[in-house]
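Journal club prep, notes for RB
We'll compare a predicted complex against what the paper describes. Inputs for the zinc ion case:
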Amino acid sequence: MTLAPWLQAPYQAVGNRIDSGRFPHAILIQGGRGLGKLPLALAIAKRLLCETRRADDQCSACQLFDRQTHSDFYRVDVAEGKTVIDIESIRELSENLATTSMLGDRKVAVISPADAMNTAASNALLKTLEEPTPGSFLILCSDRPAKLPATIRSRCQKLSLSVPLPSEVEAWLREKGVQFEAWMTHQPYLAQDVEYAERQSLIRQQLELLIDGQADALAVADHLAKLPLSYVLDVMCMWVGSAMLQSSGARQVALSRVQVQIVRYLADELTGLNARATLESILLNFAKQR
Ligand SMILES: [Zn+2]
């Protein structure tokens, strides 16, 4: 697998730690949605399991990994029809990690999105983090690490992904035949998701109608209320972030990242009637600003 250019440096840094035997028992890869946390986690897992520790693509471990049949690799995600990672999934994982590895001397698990674990699941994972089985490695991915208990975060080494340069993303997407748009800088891995891109353009169209005075705030709220509030606010944040990046030319705009985190947190807290009322009030303000 070829990693995107902006994932190469973090991957190399991790690779150096693996080579020198300093790879920690657990790491937490954090960064915005669509930056490539999972592809990076999988690449690290492959390297940890590789017989030569180089992810050489040649050894039997690499080949099993690529075919998704490596018996010492575990993926934990939200099961179909569920909204959280529950305690059963984590218990099963912990039992698997505690047994002897089948092929080499290592076992690796990727938990993504780690923030989807409910309280019971987090508590169960904590036990595994506190008493790790030698040779077992955990890689957690999260775009909302603040939702993870502090006890879990403190036991993981953090690996933070930052937003790549727009030019970097544009070149990467051009090779894949995807037309670059500003929002893709923040979510390059989602640019090829057709459904996601369509939602992006629906939200954008509605906001543009509002800005141009062709639709009123309540009519726009009717359209956008069909989507989760966190989703709509995410897109708005992405716009602000893109605008700030363009105006400042800076690689990272810390403020926009903090804003995104705050808005996401608030969006998570708002549900049902509250969410609808909040959306209306934001859009009414939006209309006033134009
Ligand atoms: Zn290999």
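Talking point for the session: Strands lie at 26-30, 73-76, 107-111, 136-142, 157-160.
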